[in-house]
Specification:
The chain is an alpha/beta fold and 391 residues long. It is built from 10 helices and 18 strands. 36% of the residues lie in helices and 27% in strands. Strands 1, 2, 7, 8, 9, 10, 16 and 17 form an 8-stranded mixed beta sheet that branches. The structure holds arabino-flavin-adenine dinucleotide.
């Protein structure tokens, strides 16, 4: 059997790409390892940035695929208990960011794709890629009953995340991995607890904490912790006590904790994001610390570029955008890596770092809170509309 694009992975990258390809009349097949139920409940990101909202809007899909509520653009940064509000409003016209939980976006994209007759195959096992530099590529896999299948295609989109199979199909020495480990651990907690009025980042002598909305009755929290901690080191009472101390809010509401994991803040970029007929999209190509809220939004950016590039090739035989896909994605990836790195370093150094670094970080925040030019630059980075990241 053959198609134009085989999309591996049905997360934000895969389902955005598949829906945009479908919208462009380009045939594709999506192969997802897990079940629909499992993918639908995977809770991670919570903000679709302004640029991504306008991207869906430009495709005429925003109302169909974006749930949640408009984001008022206000971010609260609390330094040593003192609150400062910064805004992502940059004065540009058009729809604004949305507080749309990642699983809501993925569910709506999946519904839209399937309602449009899309070919999405869940529980596809042992996916493997072949002939990526030949005249046509082949993707083989097994259905749950063990039956082997093979799909011939013009392009393979590796949307299978950081631990997927597509990147491993690239011969050694082709990709360069640029990795950075901040040496910082975060405990991330999901709870059915009242969300904050605005996304909140807090830093001070007791360390970093954050509180984000994840729907009308849920919250995601982050707590800086030793990188080698495990969730067992953080029983419920310690979580709430530490959050109340670091957020400077003794009356912080609590609720049942529904997920808890510890991870190291790390960044990773694979270059190039293409090998022959394989195009890497989203986390399969890059990982960024959640601080800047850019991980999922970068996946949406890559998917938009690849959909337009494949459409240009299929419709007009023009492969220019395919040839420049990797360079254009990487320009934004590094721009967002730099923003996330800056924010991660600043908010952690302003807390319990060595005195000189702490003063540097406090000076950066002071500039952000008092200089209109610094606030505007920050707003552009928050919205994703900054021109330095590419169109
Ligand atoms: P995903 O990992 O989401 O999806 C990959 C898909 O491929 C999965 O469905 C997987 O099952 C499938 N797959 C894997 N291997 C396969 C195989 N061999 N065959 C077939 N299918 C396969 N980002 C933000 O922007 N803001 C945040 O606040 C934020 N918070 C986060 C919190 C946590 C705890 C984590 C872990 C991440 C967070 N992120 C955040 C980043 C995250 O949202 C990713 O950027 C986003 O999921 C990337 O989407 P995809 O590239 O589609 O990868």
């Amino acid at each position: 059997v053959s198609t134009t694009v085989v999309v591996i992975g049905a997360g934000p990258a895969g389902m955005t790409l598949a829906t945009l390809l479908q919208h462009s009349g380009v045939p594709c097949v999506v192969l997802e390892r897990r079940s629909r139920e499992h993918v639908a409940q995977r809770q991670r990101a919570g903000i679709v940035e302004t640029r991504a909202v306008r991207m869906f809007d430009s495709w005429g899909l925003a109302d169909r695929v974006l749930g949640g509520i408009p984001y008022d653009g206000i971010l609260e940064i609390r330094v040593d208990g003192c609150s400062h509000l910064v805004s992502d409003r940059d004065g540009s016209d058009g729809p604004v960011a949305r507080l749309c939980p990642q699983q809501v976006l993925v569910q709506k994209l999946t519904e839209t794709f399937l309602e449009g007759g899309g070919d999405l195959r869940f529980e596809a096992a042992d996916v493997s890629l072949h002939d990526l530099t030949g005249d046509r590529a082949t993707v083989s896999y097994r259905t749950p009953d063990g039956t082997p299948h093979a799909l011939a295609c013009d392009f393979v989109a590796g949307c299978d995340g950081d631990r997927g199979v597509s990147r491993t199909a690239v011969p050694d020495g082709v990709l360069t991995a640029h990795a950075f480990d901040h040496g910082i651990g975060w405990l991330t907690v999901l709870a059915d607890a009242p969300p904050p009025a605005h996304p909140l980042l807090a830093t001070g002598p007791h360390g970093f904490a954050a509180h984000f909305p994840r729907g009308p009755h849920a919250s995601r929290y982050y707590l800086q912790c030793p990188p080698d901690d495990t969730p067992d080191d953080w029983p419920e009472q310690r979580v709430w006590d530490t959050l109340r101390t670091r957020l400077g809010d003794p009356a912080l509401g609590s609720g049942p904790i529904t997920d808890r994991e510890v991870f190291r803040l790390r960044s990773l970029v694979h270059d190039p994001m293409r090998h022959g007929r394989l195009f890497l999209v989203g986390d399969a190509a890059h990982i960024v610390s959640p601080m800047g809220g850019k991980g999922m939004n970068l996946a949406l950016y890559d998917a938009d570029l690849l959909a337009r590039a494949v459409r240009d090739f299929v419709r007009d035989g023009d492969d220019t955008a395919l040839d420049t896909y990797s360079a254009r994605c990487l320009r934004r990836v590094w721009n967002d890596q730099e923003f996330s790195h800056w924010l991660t370093r600043t908010l952690h150094d302003a807390g319990d770092a060595d005195p000189f670094l702490r003063h540097l970080a406090l000076a950066r925040l002071d500039r952000l809170f008092h200089s209109p030019a610094a606030a505007r630059a920050f707003a552009e980075l928050m919205t994703g509309l900054d021109p330095s990241g590419g169109a």
